[in-house]
Fold this protein.
Amino acid sequence: MDLISELYYRYNLFNGEKGFIGTTHCGYKIPYFKIGKGEKKIIVTSCIHAREFVTAYLSFLMMDEYKNKTLKSQLYFIPIVNIDGVKILNEIPDYKANARGVDLNTNFPAKFGTGKFNLKKVGKENYIGKFPASEEETRALMDFTIKTKPDLTLSLHAKGEEIYYDFFDEKLKTAHYRFALKAQKATGYKIVENLASAGGYKDWCIHALKIPSLTIEVGEDTLSHPIEKGYARKIHKKIKRLIPYLEEELYEK
Ligand SMILES: [Zn+2]
């Protein structure tokens, strides 16, 4: 079964709270799945960059794991934000953008257009779009996040085994750094202060919503893009403690 078919297959079988955050440019509904009942909420997004589809399989593994476990928090998984982009991988295997050639993780209204690798030209990666939140997928994720009011967001990307935690807000930095430290303890990944980042989902969550948000770059840097589906299990093993450790910090008083 291909990845998109598996997404909807899982959606149809899923017993818990589920729904769609919105629709892609090409008309695919973007599913979310909610697992757990605790007081705090965590949004976990993956595959906003098409070629990083291994993160979608990773989300599936996390969903399967937490389905039968008692969690302290409510996890909202959006396994594939960029469904249209995944479709394009059949022709361009290292494609990152959406169907309109916009890199969705540069399209959020947070220091829009100031990122180090930002481009102003349509392409397979790094094009920021005509204006902030110009893309349907971007707006869907923003609306869903505002509605859900998460206490923490995690953006799963590939690759490099790194944790990006910072954006620009000095006041929030220390509090957010504690989450990065927990993530480091859980995974052994390296913390990176990514000041070159702009327009990303995590950037927007920190900038607009003032909530702690981390980007987790999974998969060893020696792997080449796109990382195959088969690696998801290995990655999952490595980050197994991530959610429980972050929950510890969430409930720290
Ligand atoms: Zn990425």
About this structure: The beta strands are 18-23, 29-35, 40-46, 73-78, 152-158, 162-164, 190-192, 213-218. Helices lie at 3-13, 54-67, 83-88, 136-148, 170-187, 201-209, 232-238, 242-250. The longest strand covers residues 29-35.
